[in-house]
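In response to the reviewer comment on reproducibility (Comment 2.3), we provide here a single inverse folding case reported in full, input and output, so that an independent group could reproduce the run without further information from us. The structure tokens appear first.
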């Protein structure tokens, strides 16, 4: 008796969507938990936005979020990629990395759950430290269980240890003035830029190039001068 062939295609519903200060892929931390100031919300969508669906979840401090890399072109994958942690100059197999360019654009992140609330009829999970772009579709939520999900003796290959900040962050007077009454925005920008979100492989990049990244409702413009990321302007998006 022959075995039934496994299905090769699946269809999933998004159970929710992420509301995040990161409005584009550029600038998002390369792993979750690196930015304590990155606070976002997971809005559950009908028919999954029922109170009983999250009953007991508040007892867990962290969650696994399974999501879709919706900012990546479909079918845009390669069997090898260049991990930023290796300077963008060495290729490894895609399955040995957490690259966004995968056969199936599915991601997995551990995030801190800081609360669950109803707001204007919407069921919202409040998150901290998420590395997720605004509008990210969420496929599933599972509680993080330390005794099984944390393996202290596990090996981590080329990523054995958390990345360290690469840059100091400075503010031009105009940018500092914008942050004068928004200290949380200032700290958010510092945490974002200190890890140097520029592509690891920059080739013949022009010295003093100005970068722009959209967060919250503003556009942050900055350039690197030596080992300092200098914020030169914060404008309305």
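Designed residues, in position order:
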């Amino acid at each position: 008796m022959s075995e039934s062939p496994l299905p090769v295609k699946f269809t999933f519903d998004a159970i929710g969507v992420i509301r995040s200060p990161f409005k584009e892929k550029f600038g998002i931390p390369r792993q979750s938990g690196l930015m304590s100031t990155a606070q976002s919300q997971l809005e559950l969508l009908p028919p999954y936005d029922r109170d009983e669906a999250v009953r007991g979840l508040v007892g867990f401090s962290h969650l696994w979020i399974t999501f879709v890399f919706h900012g990546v072109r479909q079918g845009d994958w390669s069997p090898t990629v260049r991990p930023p942690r290796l300077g963008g100059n060495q290729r490894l197999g895609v399955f040995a990395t957490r690259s966004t360019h995968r056969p199936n654009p599915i991601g997995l992140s551990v995030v801190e759950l800081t609360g669950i609330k109803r707001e204007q009829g919407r069921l919202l999970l409040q998150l901290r430290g998420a590395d997720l772009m605004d509008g990210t579709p969420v496929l599933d939520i599972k509680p993080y269980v330390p005794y099984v999900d944390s393996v202290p003796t596990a090996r981590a290959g080329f990523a054995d240890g958390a990345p360290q900040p690469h840059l100091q962050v400075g503010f031009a007077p105009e940018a500092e003035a914008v942050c004068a009454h928004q200290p949380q925005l200032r700290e958010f920008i510092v945490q974002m830029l200190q890890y140097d979100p520029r592509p690891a492989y920059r080739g013949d990049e022009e010295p003093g190039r100005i970068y722009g990244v959209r967060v919250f409702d503003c556009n942050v413009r900055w350039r690197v001068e030596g080992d300092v990321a200098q914020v030169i302007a914060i404008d309305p998006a």
